Amino acid sequence: MGRRVLRGVLVALLLGLLGASGGGTQEPESEVERYLRLAREGSAVVRPQAAQRLVALGAPAAERLLLECGGSPDELARLGRHLVEVLGEFSDVRLRERLWQALADPDFPWRPSAALALAAAPFPAERAAIGVLFGDPLAAVRAAAVAAAGSLEVAPDEPALNALLADPDARVRRAAAMLLYREGDGCALAWLLEELNRDDRFFEQPDGKLARYAAARLLGEALGDTFGYEAEYPLDDERNASAAEALEARFRAACGGELPAVGEIARAGARIEGAVIGLELRSCRRGEYFLRWSVADELFVGTGNAVMVQLPAGTVAGLLTASEACFAELGGRRLFGEPGCDIERFRFRPDPAGRSRAVVISKGQAAVEGLRPAALARLARLLVATLPTDGLDPRLSNLRARVEAALAAIGG
């Protein structure tokens, strides 16, 4: 091929490319569109940062987000968790209406995020609606509602807050205790003092230590001093014992010499021995559940001071046999699905002194057919059959139906 012919081919190709692009340069992406795209499609680190950049852009970003919200919770859900969580920071009445509409829908996947958004700058007229959320089925929503109540210019409902000191979830109890303290109830910090005594674990997960860290941080904010308490130290460390004594003396003085009685749910429970099977459920729509079965035919529900249910003799031996068969059928596979807000984790530890093996099912907010393998579906049915349908402890109320709903929401 001669040079002239080659040059002609190259020119023709270049013109073709220009023609395909519309014969001109592409319009530059606006800041609003760029951050909107990154908040939806960026990495896990980039998404929350991009969402905050949109907040900084103010009214133009609010108008654009209003268009994306559409007229239904389903359309709002497509924004994703990070964008939903910042909508309240715009203080736009129309966006808040969309958030309240989403919160009223039990199938909206980002209800905790919507509650956090509303907590950012609540309107006084929303006080009653925020109070209703104190009784929400999701602990993350209840905790956000307490935060919202604390941001209101009017005083919160103290009897309702006091009731939350007996909430099954430690996050809610801590939030309620801090708000009551800020409202003048110095005795409320006794619930945080109790958290400093926690040393419980959910298999290898150090829930007690994490609770100590959270309580110590809040106590430091409230008092300005934790007298040298360090959550990392063992509970029997002398340094922590001295710090706990100083903190207790401070609380007794604030309460007229006598600390209030902390309810059974809020007390620091002892470590559970002999747990061999576990089921951990975290559903973005149906809440969180932590269940353990022990070699002594005991079922433990919850974390912290978990409630115990005695099962018929031989129950757990049968479950161990079924678990062994299930894990063998799965071979070496331990993960099904992809990272998301819905997680179920089956734990198996035939030797109570050893480490547990786990199989995880995970997905985003959209339903996925056939996600849970047949072996795990059979095991899940056997585990659920051992759960009580009711009980005096609120953690047992309608437990079987609630766990079934969470399993259905996650793995079908």
Care to describe what's here?
By secondary structure, this protein is of the alpha+beta class. It folds into three domains: 30-154, no CATH class; 157-271, no CATH class; 275-411, Mago nashi protein. It is 49% helix and 10% strand. It contains 18 helices and seven strands. It has helices at 3-20, 31-41, 46-57, 59-69, 73-77, 81-86, 93-103, 111-120, 127-132, 139-151, 158-163, 170-182, 190-195, 207-223, 238-254, 315-330, 374-385, 399-411, and strands at 275-283, 287-294, 298-301, 307-310, 335-337, 342-348, 357-363. Strands 4-3-2-1-6-7-5 form a seven-stranded mixed sheet, with helices on one face. The longest helix is centred in the N-terminal third of the chain and has 18 residues, at 3-20. Residues 5-24 have low confidence and may be disordered.
